Amino acid sequence: MPQAIPRPCRSGTCSAVTTNRNGYCEDHQAKASGWLNQDRGSSSQRGYGGWWKRIRARILRRDKGCASRARSRAE
Questions:
Q1: What is the pLDDT of residues 3-59, one digit of tens each?
Q2: In the Cβ-directed half-sphere of 37, how many Cα atoms lie within 13 Å?
Q3: What is the pTM of this model?
Q4: CA–CA gap between residue 18 and residue 3 (Å, rounded)
Q5: DSSP 1-60
Q6: CA nearest neighbour of 8 among 22, 24, 29
């Protein structure tokens, strides 16, 4: 199996190169797991209360689960 091509680190100011699949060098591996950040708080603590949840449910029903509706080129 060929070796992976070294690519620049995904961290903005880092000049290191990496072959890690997540794109971060060894010094910035903590940024690779941003979704696991325990300091984020719940969705309500971040400002997504009952109003947001009702609107979100209505939009998902309207768009049948799609995040954005695709428009044809003829429009």
A1: 889 999 998 889 999 998 888 999 988 888 766 667 778 888 888 999 999 999 998
A2: 10
A3: 0.44
A4: 12
A5: -PPPPPEE-SSTT---EE--TTS--GGGGGGGGGGG-TTS--TTTTT--HHHHHHHHHHH
A6: 24
Residue 8, φ and ψ in degrees, nearest 5: -65, 150
Residue listed under structure tokens 């799609």: 66
pLDDT tens readout for residues 56-68: 999 889 988 776 6
Pairing mode, strands 17-18 and 7-8: antiparallel
Question: Which residue type, as a one-letter code, is found at position 12?
Answer: G
